[in-house]
Design goal:
156 residues, alpha+beta, three-stranded antiparallel β-sheet, 4 helices, 21% strand, RNA_2'-PTrans_C, tRNA 2'-phosphotransferase activity, Ptrans_KptA/Tpt1, transferase, NAD
Amino acid sequence: APSVRVNPALQLRALTLAELAELGELVHATYFRCWNAIRHVGLDAMAPPSTRAVVCFASELPARGAVSRGMRERPQVLVCVDAQAMLLAGLRFTRDADGAVCCAGDDESGRIGLQYATRVLNASDGSELLDQDELDEERRRAAPDGLVVGPAPKPV
């Protein structure tokens, strides 16, 4: 199956303030073979089958059977994340020439934890792979001690 590939010499450009303000729920497309690792460590820019040091996102869920800009073909798992929560945590975004929104993860690990996930879906039927309680637990686990973390707002 073809996947998203980027020429290593390709320059990523920083998003403008207006583009950052418009970011909402972003979607990372992946495969079931990667899901177990994602559940344990989050989205990892350097994990196979990646060939670059960023995690790429589409700015919307694809129509059934379609592929959105910046998304792998024939995805099996769709990890939806809250871009504004990621921005507030200090994660930085760029855009590649194909229009995909890219993030190198946090400065320490280069990963994007599941505490930013709003939902995780089976791409073939739209069923949820993690329920809301599991997503809330990811947010609680990642929160600094003493911080009360509630459920993520529902996507619009």
